[in-house]
Amino acid sequence: MIAMELQTVETHEWEIPAYKLDAFKAKIAQANKRLARAGLDARFDVAYEEFERQKNVTQADQAVVSNHAPVYVYEPWIRATLTGPLTLRHGHFTFVARLVPEEAGITVHSAPGQELGGYSPRGDNACDHCQVERSRSRLYLVRDDRDDTIIQLGHSCIELYTGVSPKGLWSLTFDEELEAFTRNDVEGGFGPRHYGASVDIVLAYAFAHSDKGRAYVPSGMYSETSTVSMVRTSLFFDINKLKDPDRSYYRDKAVEAAGHLADTDLIAAIKASVVETSEDSDYGRNLRILLAGESVTGKNVGILGSLVKVYARQQQIEAERKAHPVVAGYLGEVGERIKDIAATAKTVKYDEGNWGTTTFLVAIADDGHMLVWKAHRALDIESGQRFTIAAATVKAHETYRDVDQTVITRANKFEVVEAASASEMS
Length: 426
What we know:
CATH 2.40.50.140, five-stranded mixed beta barrel, 11 helices, 3 domains, 26% helix, alpha+beta, 16 strands
């Protein structure tokens, strides 16, 4: 029997229609049998919780709809919580990532809970064991836990290098197979790795399905249908087989996406927003590789589509800068006690913890300087309100996103003066 360890690293939740529960459980049971056949002791343990989801009844549902108020029905859903995905180990070797070839290079998909620790993938198909570079569909990064070095191995060379058969590697990405159960609009479905599409078309549909990136829903947030799920439906499914109102929705989004696709300046701007992501992260590296090609595999449609969220955030920051011009430089010297400060709150976050309320405040002083204050203290101030501070001490001079910020501490006597106008808050 192969001596391997599967260690849990995080918890995942999936919200599935109740009618798919039996199929979901069968999938989990099948996975556990595969683990057993591979000689592994670990199992996927899942907890199930029932809940209801509200749905608007339409004429297409052959229901009587009030002329004055919408009528709702409540559908039974199941929240499935499992421990995993799992980290696959054997002896002093840990499988940390799977590599997926794309048109312009290799994308990296790190296993949950794994970090590359500064290692930068080479972007080729070569195996460090056999030293052969050829087209490979299965390529992995493996860490030697004795010295934290990372090596790149082809599937056929894993056993030769580590002494372990590569059985069980599918468990690193088993969560991808469960995503299909969260869909309630397609019978039969399709697998994310079986299709490819134009880079520009994926971005156009993602932009349409996410309210121009402002309402992008990640795959892990299953209280709503994820944006990538809707994009895949638009790309790979015959929407004429859907029932209204879904069919009408997807037809409208097809028209909207066509308009975005025709706006070449918009598509170019979305692509250019990749500079807001780190080149040293899996996410940033993968996006740059995908954008360098003209098409993307179905496996990476979700990563590419998420760029519209980055673009929307970039546009929001730019709009805020124009609405609230910020001057360069700092308010006071470090260590100086400054008095009679008037400012407008831009961001106010209140976090409740074991030690009470922690407030994070970002504001623009009347003279245009950016102020930042954080303390274990509650304020009666909200975003958009103008307020005064009797006195505060300058703690530090910092720069964030090319904007100078004066970090203050020991601030006292906060007082709201007035709420900002609607135009100032937009």
